[in-house]
Design goal:
single chain; alpha+beta; Thrombin, subunit H; nine-stranded antiparallel beta sheet; six-stranded antiparallel beta barrel; 8 helices
Length: 415
Amino acid sequence: MQIFNKKFTLAFLLLLMFTLVALPVAANPFGGSIIVGIDEPPDTHTGKTPAPPGQNPWQVAIIFNEASSVQRGFVCGGSLIASEWILTAAHCVEDFEPEELDVIIGREKLSSKDGEQIGSIAFHIHTDWDGNNNDIALIKLAQPASKGQFVALQKADQTALSLPGTNSKVTGWGVLSLLAEEVPDALHQVEMPIVTKAQCRASYENDPVINDTVICAGTRTSGSDPCFGDSGGPLTVAGPTGGRLLAGIVSFGRGCGFVGQYGVYTRVSMFEGWVMRQLNGSGDGEAIIVQKLTAPQSNTFFQFSATSLPFGYEFVSGSVNPYEIVYTYEDAEGSPLDIIALNDQYDDLDELIDEAEIEVADDEVYFVNGQKVLIAKFGNITSALFLKGDAVVIVDAFVTFDQMQTIVAAILNSN
């Protein structure tokens, strides 16, 4: 099952509930966030224009490498800061495995063959990333980049270069209006002033998430704003002797170009030491090392070892890291079934439902082998949520409710 479709399943909704708790936002398939509670949001525009060629050589595109095209697989933006390192947002990579993402460097039109495409081998996600604050991560490339150009990080003693009123520039392939259905082919940019923390906090109802680790930019009266797909990309300011400095990383916002709302960016200067420690190999960040599996393993937090499941599903592939296990099965027609196990311990499913604030309808509650299970439909996909040992388990498949109950029973019975 392709991961960009999986984001609309119960598995992704659950991950979202675990992380986005401070602001009323929800993820969307282009990356970034959109305010929830708006049934029909206005089609606001962002004020972005095509970026002049050659002026942003550090800009990279992060893509899901099994998509049918670069545009369909586009995930987020990022910045080339060293030959083997990309700086981006934590929320851009947290739902992927390193082997699933490639980075395109030295390209301004996604449909072109310019530049180079390099795989990733590890993510370094800030250990204090909590769904809003410390939204910063590094991608370690599989080989040094030979295209593009590094961008210098704004240092802690250079904050005068990004004071309120300073003009900033954000670049990326994010959508050009709130209701656009696909990202543009060409790299775009938008310029806007940096605003005070007080102005920004007021637009977010004084939420403490607006603090010294972020920087805000935008205008109150017009739509000048990045949008979905710009996440992880650079906010730059003029350097002291020319050139540009990376001052911010696109993090979150409410809608795109809403009047009176400002975009929020991770303040790079606050993380200069963290970034340098990761690059020097002495970091306190989180290096997620993913192990490929040729068969399910029972010697993990998820006690499960079946190589086959009811209805002809046979094991195809799997991966494990300390926090998540993913197993993919297929039936004779190639229809996929995914099992996702998260390393989170709960006494019972009700505790998880309460903590994650999951709204459960009566017809989504089932009991399988005497154990409570949530089963719901998301489009053509049936998703199940339940506990097994020390794991929170989500199963996605193109099956009926009755078939899902049979599959869940087989998983619960396997050791």
